[in-house]
Amino acid sequence: MVTSTAANEKENIEEPKAKKPLKEEKKDEMTEEDKKLEEDLGMLMQRLSEKDESLWKPSLDAMRNLIRASTTSMTSVPKPLKFMRPHYAKMKELHGAMPEGPVKKECADLISVLGMTSDEKSDCIKYRLFGSQEPIGFGYVRHLAMELSDYWKSSGVDTEEAKKRRVELEKLAHEIVKHHMKHNAEVEACDLLIEVERLDMLVEFVEEVDHQRVCHYLISCSPLTPDPDNSTLIQTAKTLYLKFGKPLEAVRCAVMLNDPEEIKRIVALTNDPTLRLQMAIILGRHQIFLDFEKIESGNQLADMNSNSHLFEYFHSLARELDIMEPKTPEGIYKSHLEHTRPFGGTSTHDSTRMNIAAAFVNGFVNCGFGVDKMMADQDEASRWFYKNKEYGMLSAAASQGLVWRWDIDAGLTQCDRFLYVNEDYIKSGTLLAIGIISSGVQDACDPASALLLDHIHSDRSVMRVGSILGLGLAYANSKRETVVKNEDGGIIVELKKVLSDNKPSATTEVKGLAGLSLGMIMVGTADHATAAEMLQYLMEKSDDLSDHNMRMVALGIALIFLGTQEKSEVFVESVRALPEPFGSMVATLVDVCAYAGSGNVLKIQQLLHICSEHYETPTDSKNKSKKGSAPPGGSTRTERPTNNLAASLAGQTPNPSGGPTPPRVQIPTSPVSTPSVGGVPLLASALPDGLGGLGITDQKKDDKKKEETRADLSSQQAVAVLGIAIIAMGEEVGTQMALRMFSHLFRYGEPVIRRAVPLALGLISVSNPQLTILETLGKFSHDSDSETAHNAIFAMGLIGAGTNNARLVTMLRQLASFHNKDPYSLMLVRLAQGLTHLGKGTLTLNPWHSDRQLLCPSAVAALFSTCFFFLDANNTVLSNRQHYLLYVLVSAMQPRMLVTLMEDEKRPGHLKQIPVTVRVGQAVDVVAQAGKPKTITGFQTHTTPVLLAFGERAELANEEYISYTPHLEGLVILRKNPEYEAMQQATSKK
């Protein structure tokens, strides 16, 4: 034991052995085979360095064979390449010294492969172009594709040499795409061609087996790419669909591109009459109504495209769900469950506002059912109308249009009872009801035009109000030539005449509604002529732009350019000629509408920049003057919330004292301020003559004048907030980012921004009551600022529209108790309750359809317009006159149902409804996934007709039927699967 201890002590005393360097350890770990390989490569490099040219080619061939023969894992570098790395610079030097010929090209090929391990960018592709262009392999092709896009952008296009290089790069891209498509790497091929802006190459290589995956990927990428690349992606997908005989999908792409002429062309080229009917149904759901007279069986197509049978299918769904029994507003409110305050007694509500709210709620809840309890007969309806005053009568009479929605024959019969009463307000409301009934339905006889055009030039302004807004709703997004291009006194021409009318009845309200109706009918057409006439009217009325009705004309201009993207750029600059602040507000309005649903990140950044500015309103100036002047010896420094906002949007922690963003105006802290340029103070002697000494005082006066004349551009900021929502709603990631931005905007933004944020939250999640947004709006609805609270309450109705969401219903009932004494807030709570129970939970306001790929322009226009009205709610929807503007929402109301149809054998060309078993579950994103992944999860089996909630997808439960459309939504036409019966017979024989 003593011996062992002594030995241990001796070992401890001895110096530790020096460790070998890491490289030497790795060399020791190398196997004999690796050592031999390294020696062989070194010997080949030595031969290549010799002057004897006869040794070069055998050496290069030997190197090539060694590299090709090497095997390694997917995650590690092949050993020959690893051993050749120290010789990489020498190889490049030798290549430069070699004479032109096949040996030099072979050397370039070898350097290109070695470039995969090099830190120098673009060597791989650069020497590939110098080489012999041999076939490419798996690992090598990835490096070429990565470097190709960077090399393409840096090559330029100005010189002849650059053009030649681009031709060579296109050839290389051709080879890479061919390799990708051959080995099931369609996504990589698409990405490469998007980078080099040559998507047209894709059409040559895509085969029928993989065209669905490619097209799905291109369409899904379009919201993530800037303009005009997004249109190019959809255009390529359309070309591929047409190439492989998928005209229905091609029509959907043409709808995304907003190209009516292309839609007509594809429909005319389609040979299958049933498939054409399905196209007409999809166009009707999108509210694009075309003239099919020149197409075979055009009458049947027009019938299905007009949505004239929609109410029949909707009623069949209601009977299936057993909800045909009408409901009353009180049955929605359930006032007996509201907690009233003790000793408060009965609430003294403003009965006028409660009656108006009840009219809207009755219409919302019984929308499309054709039956209600408040207007069951004429006497009862008249009594109900006369409970209101003036414009209240108008809104109450218009509510019958919601009850008879889509059913033109029965609805017009009901409305006819009130067209001949003595009260103008009831007659005007009935005219508006006719427009509401006809909204989204285009009858060949055009009853709305026949009835409403007679009153558009009436001597009574109230009659003009109902008829003009009714026309706007009835023909919203109509692409028919008889509506848009009829110069012989058509709808568009008559509405334009209203703008130049000088009658006493042509009030600014009437002209504002005319502008709004023009925008809704011409939505998304980018018709510069119509927009120019409306702009000319605003120019002539430049002294009256403070009138809130002028904002409706501006909104009409913006709706004309909805979704047109770059086509609006010229007009955006044109409207800036209007006086400030109106000009900037209209320019922003047109810009945000042009990029609605596009997900364009650059536009969102511009809007955030607008929101980060600080504009002093007249109220702020008064508050400053009340606080008094600066104390002697220095000036007061005001806190700038814009710095905090800018900091928060940049991802920095805001600082209450002013934040990390430097103030835009340098505020002096000394009694005398010294003028400076770029932060360098100027001496008095350096100032121009006449300003040395007294120049400081003059400059103060100039600054004061500038502050006094500075326009209040806060209205532009409110529009920018809504713009963020309407642009981001087209893309999932952008929506989540926008929600984060809104929290910063509400916390650090100006008052006008804070008031717009709740509306933006409602706009970004329509008919999709997410818990986080509900909780946020619940807090905003108790805000001390009444306008913020009002907007939050209405936004709660928007996000819960048609969902019957139990949590939202409870929150609204609690809000009704909280705002029991405030008639305005209580009216909005009732409206939100009505919207939540829209169509008894069978309708939606969501503008997206066809698996969230198509954005209905008229629905977006309706939602955006309503939120825009709420930016100035006290003068519009909450005033005593213009609450009827809420009926603009009608264009966005659609059934969220799935009804299956089949061609009637007894009546060719006609469709009959059939019950089919379907699976309904949460949609799964399968873009770019290999194989045939499941498209839904957590499904339940139902028999059609069925309701589809937000984010749900349906698929056929068995193979008995085949659908004409890949997306089972709305009205879907099926056909028998001929192979299914054969399979059944084979199974029964077994």
Automatic annotation (TrEMBL):
Domain of life where this protein originates:
Eukaryota
Q: Where is the 26S proteasome non-ATPase regulatory subunit RPN1 C-terminal domain?
A: 927-980
Q: Where is the composition biased (Basic and acidic residues)?
A: 8-38, 698-711
- Pinpoint the RPN1 N-terminal domain residues: 41-338
Provide the residue span(s) of the region labelled Disordered: 1-38, 616-679, 693-712
Q: Which GO terms describe its cellular component?
A: nucleus; proteasome regulatory particle, base subcomplex; proteasome storage granule
Query: Where is this chain compositionally biased, Polar residues type?
Result: 641-656, 667-676
Give UniProt keywords alphabetically.
Answer: Proteasome, Repeat
Molecular function terms from GO: enzyme regulator activity
Q: Output the GO biological process annotations, alphabetical, semicolon-separated.
A: proteasome-mediated ubiquitin-dependent protein catabolic process; regulation of protein catabolic process
Q: Which Gene3D superfamilies match?
A: Leucine-rich Repeat Variant
PANTHER family referenced in this protein's UniProt entry, alphabetically: 26S PROTEASOME NON-ATPASE REGULATORY SUBUNIT, 26S PROTEASOME NON-ATPASE REGULATORY SUBUNIT 2
User: What is known about what this protein does?
Assistant: Binds to the intracellular domain of tumor necrosis factor type 1 receptor. The binding domain of TRAP1 and TRAP2 resides outside the death domain of TNFR1.
Question: How does this protein assemble?
Answer: Component of the 19S proteasome regulatory particle complex. The 26S proteasome consists of a 20S core particle (CP) and two 19S regulatory subunits (RP). The regulatory particle is made of a lid composed of 9 subunits, a base containing 6 ATPases and few additional components including PSMD2. Interacts with RPGRIP1L. Interacts with CRY1 in a KDM8-dependent manner.
Q: So what family is this one in?
A: Belongs to the proteasome subunit S2 family.
> What is the protein named?
26S proteasome non-ATPase regulatory subunit 2
